[in-house]
């Protein structure tokens, strides 16, 4: 596995690969890799000649008071895991490499960014679009891989790639879970042992909400079930619990074809998110 | 010369060329071609395997009350001229092809867009960055060619390409002028015969301002000369006359290395712009 730190080196390598007609699969991450990231890398390996993974804790997508400084990092362990998962090139630039200029040019997502995580993290998705535009241009992938766990990010990126004609395909990869159902996340290490025991209740609550939604077809009823269940998790505060159309993230309507049931829950040292997608085609009339 | 109307066809053709290792030179235009555009195409032909020109009157960069509907168009004449200038592929999509969705995602330039033309055309450069991002992704050029005449556009694009790591180089091409000095522009056809006779005075005024600037080193003195001279053009109203640092478009300082002297003048049926760049290196202490 090749390791690259410099933006100019990354651009030169991907430019050469592209001109040789090699297909590049790209997996952007913030590191502290877990099975979720590795499943993206393995998926990329199946479909492409070369797999590039980036590890970059992107300051532009953290707000003031958020956990940029304390976000977990372990580059040497990550490099070992990435290599085992079939990554060919690991791109791990510094913030100074990625943002040498304090650019005033911003990319603003629309209403898709005003709900769910976006409501409590103003500017977060601006930062996501900024770094992904740069990373897509630097790695020139044919396909880029994103986990369904960050469903709002995925929805916004799919829209961005479509509306701005990026020459690549976005691949949705299912959320990888612990055996007890907890979605894998780099932030899980910050749970206390007691919280770790309670955390699978997030996914259980989403499943209860999804079941009620499938049975009743009534999003309000389903939301009530979800919120009540989340409210019973000891030591956890519900940040949001929503049912929306996916990927538009607008309110559900009669023409909605897919719904997302999503929640964010705050524990003492970690805010966890999870979601379930529900296919509505043929289900509602 | 190949003509392409569909976005998907354009993406497929440029993708194939890129994977064959062919270098693409790209010349974005709004059509109604004149010698200025053709000089861009010829320049592109010297340095690249394939020259792609786009002709697209971009609604996103026209404000309400601006001349989108009346902007001059003549595709068949343009196609002939483009072919003679060495264009290999002419991409001329419809607005519906380019904007099938009413995208909410916007790219906002910073303070560079608040001066000169940007001050009186709010949102104009948002639209320019939107369409160029799409066109760059669709044509995948190694080099893109812009005329120095639209100096603010060029400055913003250079900054955007640098800050967002677009895998291409921006080439500045000098303004092409009529024999009497008037900068070539698609909008020149809208001048009355009397106005056409007066119009070269814009460039003459810029030259007077530049001369005063070089001699005195005093931007205020130069600006006074420029404004006074523009004020004497019969039937013309000065929209702006400015001297700024280039390409930042901030006020001049002791460390400025290049200056732009720029003006916009409104005639009865056309608003014309022009500019002169002044190299300051070694000139100021």
From TrEMBL, chains A, B:
Q: Does the keyword Ligase apply?
A: yes
Q: Tell me one Pfam family matched here.
A: Pantoate_ligase
Q: Where does ATP bind?
A: 30-37, 147-150, 176, 184-187
**Residues noted as binding (R)-pantoate in the record, renumbered to the chain:** 61, 153
Principal cellular location given in the protein's record: cytoplasm
Q: Where in the cell is it found?
A: Cytoplasm
Keyword set, alphabetical order: ATP-binding, Cytoplasm, Ligase, Nucleotide-binding, Pantothenate biosynthesis
Residue positions of the active site? 37
Which positions are annotated as binding beta-alanine?
A: 61
HAMAP family recorded for this chain? PanC
Other facts noted in the record for this chain: The reaction proceeds by a bi uni uni bi ping pong mechanism.
Family to which the UniProt record says this protein belongs = Belongs to the pantothenate synthetase family.
Q: How does it assemble?
A: Homodimer.
Name by which UniProt lists this protein: Pantothenate synthetase
- The organism named in the record is Bhargavaea changchunensis
Lineage summary: Bacteria, Bacillati, Bacillota, Bacilli, Bacillales
């Amino acid at each position: 596995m090749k390791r690259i730190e410099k933006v100019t080196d990354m651009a030169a390598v991907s430019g050469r690969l592209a001109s040789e007609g090699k297909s590049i699969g790209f997996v952007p991450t913030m590191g502290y890799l877990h099975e979720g990231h590795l499943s993206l890398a393995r998926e990329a390996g199946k479909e492409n000649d070369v797999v590039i993974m980036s590890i970059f804790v992107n300051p532009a997508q953290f707000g003031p008071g958020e956990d940029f400084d304390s976000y977990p990092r372990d580059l040497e362990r990550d490099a070992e895991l990435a290599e085992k998962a079939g990554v060919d090139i690991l791109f791990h630039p510094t913030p100074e490499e990625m943002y040498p200029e304090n650019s005033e040019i911003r990319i603003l997502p629309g209403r898709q960014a005003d709900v769910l995580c976006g409501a409590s993290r103003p500017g977060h998705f601006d930062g996501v679009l900024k770094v992904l535009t740069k990373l897509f241009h630097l790695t020139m992938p044919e396909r880029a891989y994103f986990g369904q766990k960050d469903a709002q990010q995925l929805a916004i990126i799919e829209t961005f790639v479509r509306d701005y004609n990026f020459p690549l395909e976005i691949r949705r990869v299912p959320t990888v879970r612990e055996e007890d159902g907890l979605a894998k996340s780099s932030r899980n290490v910050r749970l206390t042992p007691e919280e770790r025991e309670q955390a699978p209740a997030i996914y259980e609550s989403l499943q209860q909400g999804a079941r009620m939604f499938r049975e009743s077809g009534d999003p309000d009823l389903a939301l009530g079930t979800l919120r009540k269940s989340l409210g019973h998790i000891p030591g956890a505060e519900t940040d949001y619990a929503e049912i929306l159309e996916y990927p538009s993230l607008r309110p559900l309507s009669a023409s909605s074809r897919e719904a997302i049931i999503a929640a964010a829950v705050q524990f003492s040292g970690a805010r966890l998110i999870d979601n379930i997608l529900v296919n509505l085609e043929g289900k509602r009339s």
